[in-house]
Design a protein that fits this description.
Order of helices and strands of chain A: EHHEEHHEE
Number of helices of chain A: 4
Radius of gyration of chain A: 15 Å
Largest interface: A-B, 25 and 23 residues
CATH topology of chain A: Heat Shock Protein 90
Helix content of chain B: 40-55%
Radius of gyration of chain B: 12 Å
Structural class of chain A: alpha+beta
Oligomer: heterodimer
Shape of chain A: globular
Strand content of chain B: 35-45%
CATH architecture of chain A: 2-Layer Sandwich
CATH topology of chain B: Transcription Regulator spoIIAA
Distance between the termini of chain B: 23 Å
CATH class of chain B: Alpha Beta
Largest sheet of chain A: 5 strands, antiparallel
Helix content of chain A: 25-40%
Largest sheet of chain B: 5 strands, mixed
Distance between the termini of chain A: 36 Å
CATH superfamily of chain A: Histidine kinase-like ATPase, C-terminal domain
Order of helices and strands of chain B: EEHEHEHE
């Protein structure tokens, strides 16, 4: 049976680059109720920033679209974020997740998924070309009580 | 952000948050100076950066392309541990000198 979250939020915003900082602050603000360490909060901010930037740059390359950020907290301190778009979708997910593959070249390092994976416990991607993409990020918060930074 | 120039060495003191949104104006300003000076050494100082995602890596990579085209080198210095970790993910140390905060050349 699917576990029910203890708390949940949904945020919908336009795919404007100014919303990258808004999304990561919302995510870290939500996770703050688990009393995470500064490091853990930074991990969440960085991973969410990458996922949202991917939507802005790749899902809606030619205009504005809708991005949905869903946050959930589960018993035991697991936090899950889903970043959904209704954009272009990904043809080859395995290829898109490879480090240094950007598909755009130029100023993008092609590291978005590598960064998400290095700062989260689990990253998964579902996508349908022409329909959109959903990136799921999960992180187990150890928090300050378990040998954090005090 | 502050840019200081000594001879053919250009140092950029970055500050605040570096993401895809903020990287665009930073890039524009640095590139203007690179065009004028054609530096032999570009030092990007990350000491004042409070947040960075992989856009910071793209910023270094892109500047490496233009500076190395004129025979110059790029260094990213004063990197807080977390930024250093992100830079290392990219293998950036193969093209640019990376130094953590407090590390001497």
């Amino acid at each position: 049976m699917r576990k029910q979250p203890l708390n949940r939020f949904t945020l919908t915003f336009e795919s404007r680059s100014a919303n990258e900082s808004f999304a990561r602050l919302a995510a870290s603000g939500f996770a703050a109720q688990l009393d995470p360490t500064v490091e853990e909060l930074c991990d969440i901010k960085t991973a969410v920033s990458e996922a949202v930037t991917n939507c802005i740059v790749h899902a809606y390359p030619d205009g504005l679209g809708e991005i949905r950020l869903i946050g959930e907290i589960f018993a035991g301190g697991l936090v899950r974020f889903r970043v959904k778009d209704k954009g272009r979708g990904i043809e080859d997910i395995a290829l898109a997740m490879q480090p240094l593959y950007s598909g755009l070249g130029g100023e993008r390092a092609g590291l978005g998924f590598a960064v998400m994976e290095s700062f989260c416990d689990r990253v998964s991607v579902r996508s349908k070309p022409g329909r959109g993409t959903c990136v799921t990020l999960e992180k187990q918060i150890q928090g300050k009580l378990v040998g954090g930074d005090g | 952000m502050e840019i200081s120039i000594q001879g053919k060495c250009m140092t950029v003191f970055l500050d605040g948050e570096i993401d895809h949104h903020t990287a665009a104006p930073i890039r524009k300003q640095i590139d203007g100076e690179i065009d004028r000076l054609k530096p032999k050494l570009l030092v990007l100082d990350f000491g004042g950066v409070t947040f960075m995602d992989s856009s910071g890596v793209g910023l270094v990579m892109g500047r490496y392309r233009s500076v190395s085209a004129c025979g110059g080198k790029v260094e990213a210095v004063n990197l807080p541990p977390r930024l250093y970790q992100i830079m290392k993910l990219s293998g950036l140390e193969k093209i640019a000198g990376l130094r953590m905060a407090g590390e001497r050349p």
